[in-house]
Amino acid sequence: MASELEPEVPAIDQSLLECSAEETAGKWLQSTDLTREVYQHLAHYVPKIYCRGPNPFPQKEDMLAQHVLLGPLEWYLCGEDPAFGFPKLEQANKPSHLCGRVFKVGEPTYSCRDCAVDPTCVLCMECFLGSIHRDHRYRMTTSGGGGFCDCGDTEAWKEGPYCEKHELNTSETEEEEDPLVHLPEDVVARTYNIFAIMFHYAVEILTWEKESELPADLEMVEKSDTYYCMLFNDEVHTYEQVIYTLQKAVNCTQKEAIGFATTVDRDGRRSVRYGDFQYCEQAKSVIVRNTSRQTKPLKVQVMHSSIVAHQNFGLKLLSWLGSIIGYSDGLRRILCQVGLQEGPDGENSSLVDRLMLNDSKLWKGARSVYHQLFMSSLLMDLKYKKLFAVRFAKNYERLQSDYVTDDHDREFSVADLSVQIFTVPSLARMLITEENLLTIIIKTFMDHLRHRDAQGRFQFERYTALQAFKFRRVQSLILDLKYVLISKPTEWSDDLRQKFLEGFDAFLELLKCMQGMDPITRQVGQHIEMEPEWEAAFTLQMKLTHVISMMQDWCALDEKVLIEAYKKCLAVLMQCHGGFTDGEQPITLSICGHSVETIRYCVSQEKVSIHLPVSRLLAGLHVLLSKSEVAYKFPELLPLSELSPPMLIEHPLRCLVLCAQVHAGMWRRNGFSLVNQIYYYHNVKCRREMFDKDIIMLQTGVSMMDPNHFLMIMLSRFELYQIFSTPDYGKRLNSEMTHKDVVQQNNTLIEEMLYLIIMLVGERFTPGVGQVNATDEIKREIIHQLSIKPMAHSELVKSLPEDENKETGMESVIEAVAHFKKPGLTGKGMYELKPECAKEFNLYFYHFSRAEQSKAEEAQRKLKRQNREDTALPPPILPPFCPLFASLVNILQSDVMLCIMRTILQWAVEHNGYAWSESMLQRVLHLIGMALQEEKQHLENVMEEHVVTFTFTQKISKPGEAPNNSPSILAMLETLQNAPYLEVHKDMIRWILKTFNAIKKMRESSSTSPVAEAEGTITEESSRDKDKAERKRKAEIARLRREKIMAQMSEMQRHFIDENKELFQQTLGLDASNSAVLDNSPMVSDVTLMALGPAQTQVPKQRQFVTCILCQEEQEVKVESKAMVLAAFVQRSTVLSKNRNKVIQDPEKYDPLFMHPDLSCGTHTGSCGHIMHAHCWQRYFDSVQAKEQRRQQRLRLHTSYDVENGEFLCPLCECLSNTVIPLLLPPRNVFNKLNFSDQPNLTQWIRTVSQQIKALQILRKEESIPNIASSKNSKNMDKLQLPEGFRPDFHPKNPYSDSIKEMLTTFGTAIYKVGLKVHPNEEDPRVPLMCWGSCAYTIQSIERILSDEDKPLFGPLPCRLDDCLRSLTRFAAAHWTVALLSVVQGHFCKLFASLVPDDNYGDLPCILDIDMFHLLVGLVLALPALHCQDFSGISLGTGDLHVFHLVTMAHIIQILLTSCTEANGMDQETPAGEEELAVLALYKTLRQCTGSALKETPSGWHLWRSVRAGIMPFLRCSALFFHYLNGVPAPPEIQVSGTRHFELLCNYLSLPNNLISLFQENSEITKLLIESWCQNIEVKRYLEGERDAISYPRESNKLIGLPEDYSSLINQASNFSCPKSGGDKSRAPTLCLVCGTLLCSQSYCCQTELEGEDVGACTAHTYSCGSGVGIFLRVRECQVLFLAGKTKGCFYSPPYLDDYGETDQGLRRGNPLHLCKERFKKIQKLWHQHSITEEIGHAQEANQTLVGVDWQHL
Ligand SMILES: [Zn+2]
Ligand SMILES: [Zn+2]
Ligand SMILES: [Zn+2]
Ligand SMILES: [Zn+2]
Ligand SMILES: [Zn+2]
Ligand SMILES: [Zn+2]
Ligand SMILES: [Zn+2]
What is the per-residue pLDDT for 1057? Predict the structure, then answer.
């Protein structure tokens, strides 16, 4: 170690190395003043080890510190060599049954939703996997760092507190045994001494505040003039600010500045300059000056180096203590004792206290070190945990105040330890009773909110940013309150009662400050000028919601407490509103002979507040009382007589009236703040302790007063009293033509008031209000949510209120009310309401928003229509009220209510003008329905002798009283039944009348006295029934007809959409459903189809007509006509790559002539298949370009496509494209000359071609010598003895029109440009090579997809693929006509030479290093360049066939050379056939040629099998290639899946079924060829094992395998640290799904430079792994990331689903996630199909915000 360090830091003091730990410890053992001795040692050595220069050398420092400083401590402690001492201690140690593992950032944590006492109880992954909870309902989250595993803590878990591992440690636990008894006494004594000294030293030095002076006993004799300029972290300044400032202040590079800033951010401080005082002071002043402009300056100190040295050692020491106590629980106990021992200064002077109280003064690094020590010592020792908890509680106020004024995040504050203490039930209880913790927390909280108005209420009006920031920090106290309350007591002691109630008092004080806060007054005339602050108050309310609920839960557990709390709450409410009548005029209201005294108060004119937490708490407690027995057994204990119902209802009623008025548009001028407040008042996050409780409070009030009185007060508060107390109000309204707005307003108010009455009577699903339990309540919520529409799990969860444990209780009941429908390939799993639950639907469910209500109404009516039922939505049957609320139902049959009903019905009957609304009527009908249901229930449940006092039916049968003598309600309903304008409500009225009659029958059967006045209606009814039946029948027929037409319409619509989907959104899916059958027309079925060669099946010429998508003109595809083009996208690809490490280094020099069989980088061409005129496309593209340029100048916007790179969107389908392919006829027909009968065989042909090549070579050589005249040329040619019929001077005429020629060049250049990433150059000789290569590569990639999906080769292919392959192949075949003939000939010669040896080429690859399909395509497509000068009568077809046979033979040899034919346990099934004997013979030849380097083979059978398997992909690709080239349809047998494909392919390709016979037929040349191939040095090297080669068939590439359980990925990522910043955890670990590399994404540390720009790790990786395209999984976010190039990217839904069939992007819900194989396959398919870029394009077009993201920084 040392030797390594020496060259780097030469100045290691020799005296340090000579220092002996044993001797030092020995000296200490003898010492009388140990403290002085140790301090002297430290004073001498610490500055010699630490802080010797501008940069720390942690390795060297650690080594020396261990040797010189810690070593002696360990020796002293053990009294012997610690190498022996510590193991002894470890043996005596009793391993803890607590896990206590401290979580790293990003580590997965698990909480059991069934067994955890609260959601803060978590397990580490290891413990979780070994626990019973893995089979329970659990939640998974990633830790933010800090906190520890609760395994083994019996208080944290209701069940299964231990995992398998920690269970072992519990077996012989005797509680409370002192761990010190296991340690030798002398060790205990020495440990105590040394811990006391060292702990004290660490605390003293870390909390030391002087900058250049040490504590006296550490001061050195000679002091150097070396200082540090120390920069501290704050949360105010940004990274960029700090980096910029540092570059200026200390004159460093940006890289150094980034390094400093990163360390400051991580550790909390970093020295940025080292030198004499002056030098450092200077840097300090620059930094301060530069950062103090807008905010407070960065904290900088100039500190003497020796202080920094001691502080660094202090930190080291704390970590050392942490590791030493890991050896023994005894040592741990001693450390706890030392830490908590009171110091000389009395109270708060223990070391632990001193650290805590200085917490906010320490820098981040120091804080986390000592917090960790606390966690591994104090919190792991059961006895001292309690003592520590007491210290924590005693210091609570100070700690919180420090935290509030500090600016660091909570996780870096000691206050954050509250969660570890307060959530332990026994500790929380102890702290409440002994330290009065509840009161302390609440008081501390209130101390920090000092802004009050004149009434003492909180005031948030003029909140500054700083106060808002502070307010946010104060909120953490509410969290503490929640922790303390979260586990409810099972037993109450008197102490607990007393202290809880004391806390309750404090809590009421808090609520009192909220009661009536933020009051508002209606703005009339002008709109308000400034939106008032409202968020602070609501934030407070929202944060307190769970605390308020929990306070009630606590009260519910003990009757004594409940009664006391109720009394206290009532008293406080009286204080708030005792004199609520003060200053307001008393008035008397009277309707129908009832009258009541109240006050004059108008919500629309006076102040009103939404915040009424005291009233609402009382409502909550009242319900609890109603649930308890005490209310009935000992009502005298309750202060019920003190209740004044009018006082109780007043404020909640005002609040509800406010909502109604806002809805009626009366508060429009008060702006959005009010709208928002009303929204939150009803919102699921707040309503439980706001809206819901207001309803309960009104219910409480009504049940205690005369309902007539209540209704009159209500009418008055709604400002509707006049309307209903004046009988002719409606008429008067019409005659006077009152202002229309006012009428509208009143209508809405009446509707709202009726709605409120419906709620008061109907909402009985709170236990205590109605006779229900909690399950009924949640069931009802779910039923109503699902009545709106089917919902996904997460959607449903969001719509239900969560309790303090984040539970909704939904899982336990969902099965009972809903069916689960599994998700498909996209989308989510959905819950659907069970049909039998529909009858519980209440249209006026109080948690519906207006929009939800109307959606639900529509959905339910539709459902009823579908079931052919009437569409009435009558009120559901309700559970009975609890006794305390029982009298509430009488409101329905009260006189005032009947009067209201009658009035509204009267308006409806008269139906003149606009003074009424249908909604009003609908609500009245609903109320009547409710009353009937109620009466029916009463009758059904009545006991024998009881009289049913609910007589609604009788009351509505009576006509109205004088003076107006209106008809009875019943009669009016009958009239309305036939009103033509009430068609929608007819079914409901009918239902009411039916129910009325049913009740009457029930009454008649139970009593003998007939109900006289109803008789008339009965007779009337029977005649009407007939009439009704007839009408109904007609209506039914009409309805059926309507439905049929609708169905037809929607069918047509669907069809239309489907068709257009095909048009606009053609996916590359290979589904048979939306695809066209290949070449359906040329029918030549009775002959054997042959794709190539002289015997090629002749296809009748076909005329092809296409339509341009831009001008809609139709045109025939002809050689001489204008070019038609397909939009196309060319991209580089590594999808087929077998070697991802290979990158094209210098594209300018790269030679793409031969493709290596590893296919490491290919060029893929895809197309959406949309056809345009070339000139139409040109015009379109020019306009896109011009538009883009204008737009960029104006807005500097990005688009999803890069115009400068030639990109555009297909004008029809918006598919990303970057070029166009010309559409051509089969080009061979254009060039092919007549066939002569006599065609050469392979041997002859090779000879001829070789001669022609030789001739060409000589010619080229001569041409390159300039001084030879052209006339001489021909002479030489004669001399040369040209092969017969070969005319090298002949230059064929290009048959294509200029427009087509231009497009051939355009597309060729595009492939060249993109494929090689070079500047376009149409003359480059590599252009034709790139065209052929892209053709070959694209065919290969499609062959792979078909094969992977087990699809037949020529099965139905989507049109776009088919069109693309056809055009691409024909283009590649025609391209030579626009290239230089000599260039193409040159390529041919060289390609040919790779198989047929030619001395002129020395540098050709060996056959192991050539992809044979690429070679085939190149040779075939280059051949015409040679053939066009050959007039000997050899047909092009013959040439094709021989080329094909030759390459096939080479491929067979390639396969045989590389096959690993070890006997693989499979036995030969049939006796050796012809093929097997042949292949065996061929193999023998091969062995001879290679000098027996080739392994011995097991059998011909095995060989033949591997040849057949290996060559299949090649044959399949060839079949596709020749098919598209020559247009010969494939035999129908290959178009379906089958087994005989090998033979069929051979026939189609005119190959013998016994491929080996190719060699036998041409034996004379075969031997020569094989010899030349095998003699290559590379082949030898391969056979001798010196190099690798690709073997066949190549396996398809797949995305990496992903684990089934997502948490193992999280775990893997949490162990991953940034590869560049030494062991730091990566913030955004991201997994490459192609190769499995983990990257540190989205972070400064891992940015690299790529083409002159800084890019993130992912973008950099795409360039090496995917040639610019990447597929990643962001592990922390559970999100798939697609990247393409530097500017394109999008997020894609991950292949992980929870049990409810939903993804969890961002890991917010924490449900366990499992791999969905189908979805993962879909991603893989996108990759295989080269559709990633296209997918990004579509995503960006759909969501423009994605365009602006800096994808390259990911
Ligand atoms: Zn654990
Ligand atoms: Zn465990
Ligand atoms: Zn469990
Ligand atoms: Zn056109
Ligand atoms: Zn298109
Ligand atoms: Zn990094
Ligand atoms: Zn990769």
Answer: 42
SS3 string of 154-188?
CCCECCCCCCHHHHHHHCCCCCCCCHHHHCCHHHH
Query: Residue 6 has what pLDDT?
Result: 39
pLDDT at 840: 93
Instruction: Find the 1683 Cα to ligand 5 centroid distance in Å.
Output: 22
179-187 long-range contacts (CB < 8 A, ≥24 apart) are 179/94, 179/328, 179/329, 179/330, 179/332, 179/333, 180/330, 180/333, 180/334, 182/92, 182/93, 182/94, 182/330, 183/89, 183/92, 183/328, 183/330, 183/331, 186/79, 187/77, 187/78, 187/79, 187/89
On the 0-12 / 13-18 / 19+ scale of CB atoms within 10 A, 1192 is middle
- How far away, in angstroms, is 490 Cα from ligand 2 center? 27
- For residues 104 and 146, what is the distance between their CA atoms, to the nearest angstrom? 7
H helices of 1110-1203, in order, are 1174-1195
Distance (angstroms) between ligand 5 centre and the Cα of 1073 equals: 19
> Quick one: CA torsion of 206, 211, 212, 213, rounded to 10 degrees?
-50
CA dihedral 878, 883, 885, 888 (to 10 degrees): 70
Instruction: Dump pLDDT digits (tens) for 724-767.
Output: 887 666 555 555 556 777 888 889 999 999 999 999 999 999 99
1436 contacts 1233 by C-beta, under 8 angstroms: yes
User: Which ligand sits closest to the CA of 122?
Assistant: 1
Burial of 401 (0-12, 13-18, 19+ CB in 10 A): middle
Cα of 391 from ligand 1 centre, angstroms: 27
Q: From the CA of 427, how far away is ligand 3's center (Å)?
A: 23
Ligand 5 centroid–CA 1747 distance in Å is 21
Q: What local confidence, expressed as pLDDT, does residue 1271 receive?
A: 47
Ligand 6 center to residue 1578 CA distance, Å? 41
Q: Which residues of the chain have pLDDT under 50?
A: 1-10, 1008-1023, 1049, 1052-1084, 1268-1272
Report the separation in Å between the CA atom of 158 and the middle of ligand 1, taken as the mean of its atom positions: 17
Q: From the CA of 1163, how far away is ligand 4's center (Å)?
A: 29
CA of 93 to the centre of ligand 1 (A): 19
Identify which ligand lies nearest to the alpha carbon of 1647.
Answer: 6
- What is d(CA 175, CA 181) in angstroms, rounded to the nearest whole number? 14
Between strands 227-232 and 269-275, the pairing is antiparallel
Inter-residue contact 569 to 618 (CB < 8 Å): yes
Q: Give residue 1616 CA to ligand 7 midpoint distance, Å.
A: 16
- Hey, which residues does 109 pair with through a beta bridge? 141
Distance 263 CA to ligand 6 centre (A): 13
Q: Which ligand is nearest to the CA of 130?
A: 2
The span from the CA of 1339 to the CA of 1319, in Å, is 26
Whole-number Å distance, alpha carbon 165 to ligand 2 midpoint, is 6
Contacts for 487-496 with beta carbons within 8 Å, 24 or more apart?
487/117, 487/118, 487/423, 487/425, 487/428, 488/550, 488/553, 488/554, 488/557, 489/429, 489/554, 489/557, 492/557, 492/558, 492/560, 492/561, 493/433, 495/433, 496/429, 496/432, 496/433
pLDDT for res 1016: 40
Give the three-class secondary structure for 539: helix
pLDDT in tens, 1357-1398: 788 888 899 999 999 999 999 999 999 999 999 999 999 988
Name residues with Cβ closer than 5 Å to ligand 7, which is an ion: 1632, 1634-1635, 1637, 1665
The β-bridge partners of 1128 are: 1167, 1219
Which tokens in the block code for residue 142?
Answer: 């990633």
Cα 1169 to ligand 4 centroid, rounded to whole Å: 15
CA distance 151 to 167: 9
Q: Determine the Cα–Cα distance for residues 1285 and 1428; give it in Å rounded to an integer.
A: 11
Kindly state the DSSP code that residue 765 receives in the 8-state scheme.
-
